[in-house]
């Protein structure tokens, strides 16, 4: 049996059982491709694009986690973000004060 390859490659000779299995795989691949296209049309989500999930990854990285790596509940996460913002503001104020002191000297 001959299996025709893509890109103008010469055909490969395989056993009849292998050939029937190759044909089944091709059919299944086509079915999955059609289902994926339908899902993309319905949801508007491009499953083949790795950048489509990038925003989700960025948002997950910003969320707070406990010592075991699990996400914190929203309330604790908001409290943690507020504490971080306060610490950043304090650090900025200290840096500004140090810069002013250096400029005066």
From TrEMBL:
It comes from the Eukaryota. Its main location: nucleus. GO terms for molecular function: DNA binding; DNA-binding transcription factor activity. Residues 76-105 have a biased composition (Low complexity). The keyword Transcription regulation applies. GO terms for cellular component: nucleus. It is found in: Nucleus. Residues 55-69 have a biased composition (Basic and acidic residues). Component of the sequence-specific heterotrimeric transcription factor (NF-Y) which specifically recognizes a 5'-CCAAT-3' box motif found in the promoters of its target genes. Heterotrimer. Belongs to the NFYA/HAP2 subunit family. This is Nuclear transcription factor Y subunit. It comes from Anaeramoeba ignava (Anaerobic marine amoeba). The lineage of its organism: Eukaryota, Metamonada, Anaeramoebidae, Anaeramoeba.
């Amino acid at each position: 049996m001959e299996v025709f390859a893509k890109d103008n490659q010469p055909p490969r000779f395989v056993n009849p059982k292998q050939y029937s299995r190759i044909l089944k795989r091709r059919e299944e691949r086509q079915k999955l491709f059609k289902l994926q296209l339908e899902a993309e049309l319905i949801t508007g989500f491009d499953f083949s694009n790795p950048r489509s999930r990038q925003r989700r990854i960025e948002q997950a990285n910003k969320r707070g986690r406990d010592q075991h790596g699990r996400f914190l509940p929203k309330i604790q996460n908001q409290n943690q973000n507020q504490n971080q913002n306060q610490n950043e503001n304090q650090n900025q104020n200290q840096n500004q004060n140090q810069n002013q002191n250096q400029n005066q000297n």
